[in-house]
Design goal:
Length: 431
């Protein structure tokens, strides 16, 4: 038996979707040869059997008997298949609704009504333009369902590790001369527990190293939940070095808040182990603290705060007042804060002298569209700042800047469509 009633009901719903969508394929192949119609049937139901069989197997097989990456890939494969079919169902249902009302209208008008059946494979004996419309909608339904199937599959195969270097110039009003032209690389949201291609991950690190930045910032989410996820990637990320150091902070996932622990102490130890991993890689984790960089007699402050989110159910672990203490006197202050909601909620209203905040967290939803300066993602409806550069003036007229990195890794869906993984290279300039 399946684990619970909800799983059984979901299988039943999947089967209904399968039968309904199959009628569209049968309709489109109606004028083909018998061999072609057989091939369509075998191809459709073969793909369906694999998808449905995979879902059932995932419910029956103990979770710890399959590798984490394998289970994730299988689950996402099932999701993509049925999400695509669901899109097809929407268009087919629209077609059926249209034909149903046409049938009602014909009956009211006293005409001989065309036969109506919710199954789109049914032949219609209506006027020519109705048949044309029906044929168009069925073809549209199949095409619409194929788009997410192709896009999300391509997003796994290609998009997951299609790293892009983004270059940003940061003009700063009070930047000391010795730091003019300094370069900073930012990584964020590595999510090492999601990786499935170690060679590609290393390739991204090589791209960063080729840029030879003076300084590197990592803005949180090294793991999905458990510290041991990063173990097999330490030998890759410990190559991330810079002359002025690598500074890092924690993101919401680094606190293990999304899995069940045997005790609160076990969860606390997990956080300590994540911090330990940062240190093993030669990084400098900033846990509500700051560091002062000195160069040519000039100084600037790097402030790092633990996760501070201000959205629904957001995790609050940091203390910016504590992190800021001792940095007041320095002319430029750079803040590492994982969640961009922190900028509007606390940084801008209470710390107008923090020049730039470096964040991540949103991943740009790992899905969207970017053309030149135009960008769109569904995540924009949840986050005011979700990807790229944002500026606001303080009440004193001093500009403050936020940069939201699109993330190096991924979580949940193991790929990216349109919003590609990012390595950001900043150049500081005197304004």
């Amino acid at each position: 038996m399946l684990r619970n009633l909800s799983s059984f009901l979901l299988v039943a719903i999947f089967l209904l979707i399968d039968v309904y969508v199959y009628q569209a394929f049968r309709f489109l192949a109606r004028n083909s040869t018998e061999a072609t119609q057989r091939a369509v049937a075998w191809g459709y139901w073969g793909f369906t059997a694999i998808s449905l069989g995979t879902y059932i197997a995932l419910q029956l097989i103990p979770a710890d008997s399959i590798g984490r990456v394998t289970r994730t890939m299988l689950t996402i494969g099932v999701f993509i298949a049925y999400f695509s079919k669901f899109i097809t169902v929407i268009f087919l249902f629209i077609d059926d609704i249209i034909r149903f009302f046409q049938w009602i209208w014909s009956a009211i008008a006293g005409k001989s009504p065309a036969p109506v059946n919710s199954v789109p494979g049914t032949e219609l004996t209506a006027v020519d333009n109705t048949i044309t419309r029906h044929d168009f909608l069925v073809k549209t339904a199949v095409a619409a369902g194929a788009i997410p199937l192709v896009a999300f599959s391509y997003g796994i195969i290609s998009g997951a590790h299609d790293y892009r270097i983004r270059r940003v110039t940061l003009p700063l009003k009070n930047l000391p001369r010795s730091f003019d032209g300094m370069t900073i690389a930012q990584l964020s949201d590595i999510h090492s527990g999601s990786f499935f291609n170690k060679t590609a991950v290393k390739g991204g690190v090589d791209m960063l190293l080729h840029e030879k930045p003076d300084l590197v910032f990592f803005t949180g989410d090294l793991v999905n939940s458990r510290a041991d996820e990063v173990n097999e990637y330490i030998d890759i990320f410990n190559k991330v070095k810079a002359p002025l150091g690598v500074y890092s902070t924690l993101g919401n996932h680094d606190y293990g808040a999304y899995v069940k622990w045997s005790s609160a102490e076990a969860q606390r130890q997990n956080v300590l182990d994540v911090v330990k991993a940062h240190k093993l890689m030669g990084w400098n984790p900033l846990m509500d603290e700051n560091r002062i960089l000195t160069q040519g007699g000039d100084k600037l402050a790097i402030i790092g705060v633990q996760n501070l989110g201000f959205g629904p159910a957001a995790l609050k672990a940091g203390n910016l007042a504590k992190a800021y203490q001792g940095a007041e006197e320095y002319p430029v202050k750079l803040l590492l804060s994982h969640d961009p909601t922190h900028w509007d909620a606390e940084v801008r209203p209470n710390y107008p002298d923090i020049d730039v905040t470096f964040s991540g967290h949103t991943h740009g939803a790992q899905f969207g569209v970017e053309f030149g300066d135009y960008k769109w993602s569904p995540v924009k409806y949840f986050y005011r700042q979700w990807a790229g550069l944002y500026h606001e003036d303080t009440t004193a007229g001093n500009p403050q800047t936020l940069y939201v990195n699109r993330g190096y890794g991924y979580i949940g869906y193991p790929g990216r469509v349109g919003i590609l993984p990012e390595i950001t290279i900043f150049t500081l300039k005197q304004a």
